[in-house]
Amino acid sequence: MPQSVPQLTELEWDVVVERGAGDAAGFPDDQYVAAGATVGDAAGIAACNIVLVVSPPTPEFIGELSRGAIVAGFLEPYINRELMEACVTAGVTAIAVEAIPRTTLAQSMDALSSQTNIAGYAAVLQACQDAPKLMPMMVTAAGTIAPGRVLILGVGVAGLQAIATAKRLGAVVHAYDIRPETAEQVESLGAKFVAAPTASADAGGYAVEVEADTQARQHEALAPFVAEADIVITTAQIPGRPAPLLITSAMVAAMRPGAVIVDMAAATGGNVEPSRPDEVVTVGGVRIHGPTNLAAHMPGDASRMYSRNLVTLLQRLHAEGTENLATDAIFEEAAVVIQGEARHPRTRSLLGMEDA
After folding, report:
1. Domain encompassing residue 224
2. By three-state DSSP, how is residue 238 classified?
3. What is the model's pTM?
4. Per the domain annotation, does 136 fall within a domain?
5. Do 170 and 246 fall into the same domain?
6. Any catalytic annotation for residue 113?
7. How far is CA 269 from CA 79, 123, 303, in A?
């Protein structure tokens, strides 16, 4: 956002913004110019020493960067093989914001959390717009309307925001996560935790893949809650792996016509068997959304939060120096490629490196 430009020029950096980049968020080019930036085209951006992106750039764009340049943003470092190969070949440094550790030190730079927070809110609003059912209970002269029933599957940042949003709208909310420690968080927001199989998280606090028999028991336990729900929001992800299947086609077939599902994991395989990325699929009267960029539905605030994340990241980069990326508490995780050398274990595994 334009307000971030002075924070970067204070570091004695020249700031170039791609023409029209802020239009959708309500930040026209003249606001950036007034803040001290220069507006340029794609070629001018590629000539910069540090390039900030919102979504993964093309491998062709990476090939246009100067050797030793830094590209930072959402880069899909565990699944986008072509992009990571391009970073290695071009000899650039790739800082993936989705690889920033979930620590107190890195909290202000955690763009993945800031954007999924917005996405969880937007998912509930999207579902409510599409559902024929009111969320709050209403007592009227025309009779009493029972509250809507919402089921949230996956209790990370997006899931917690979805729970809070659905509760604010007056719905009866149930939620489930494979990690048992999330039950307390669910209940603290006024929702009810679904009793289903649980498993310990990995060292980073993320969910892990489960065996086929555990998955079958999950489906059995979740099926009645799915069938009763007016809205289901699924958010479950496993970093570097396909999203876990939580709702089968048979479970969808048991839902009431008019029910709505928003599968926030559609881009990585989907939590819902019939979902498709960026499509709305109707199965037996149930509408299944598969959005891949829900934060873009709230572009102004999404841009403000992402900008603050990146500015904080760059301030640390300026203070620590590029020579210390491999040993810095944050960049040793987030800098998945350093001057053409793939360093993150998952990125090295993606590229087929033997010592990964």
Report:
1. 113-297
2. coil
3. 0.88
4. yes
5. yes
6. yes
7. 12, 18, 27
